[in-house]
Amino acid sequence: MKNKPKVAFICVHNSCRSQMAEALGKHFASDVFESYSAGTEVKPAINADAVRLMQRIYAIDMRERQYSKLIDALPQVDIVITMGCNVECPHVVAKHREDWGLADPSGEVDAIFIETIDRIERNIKDLARRIRVGEITL
């Protein structure tokens, strides 16, 4: 696909759900879209449980290329996916936006984290499919 759309995964702290979505977007859909993540606040590190479980499940080390960053660091994006902030979600200009309504698994047991990771994986694959077949027009 030429000129792949840029997708930004957004949540407040950019330390857990949006980071996992960025990593899974790169892992499962890099042929369809470019993945980025950001937030309105930054954390000193990506959530340790997210890092550990993404490494265990997918052999992805998010610490290699990812870090918590502000929305100002994003390139101009085509699609914005908010994770389900339950507070004031950051606004980023885009041609298409949707909210995935995911609860923050930070501080929860592994089973909750894994459930969130599974939902993100399904959503990533569905997003790639919708872009590929033209359901999302940009």
TrEMBL record:
Residues in Phosphotyrosine protein phosphatase I domain copies: 5-130
Pfam families noted in UniProt: LMWPc
Iron-sulfur keyword on record: no
InterPro entries, A to Z: Ptyr_pPase, Ptyr_pPase_sf
UniProtKB keywords: Arsenical resistance
GO biological process: response to arsenic-containing substance
Keyword Zinc recorded: no
SUPFAM superfamilies: Phosphotyrosine protein phosphatases I (SSF52788)
Protein name per the record: Arsenate reductase ArsC
Source organism (scientific name): Entomospira culicis
Species classification: Bacteria, Pseudomonadati, Spirochaetota, Spirochaetia, Spirochaetales
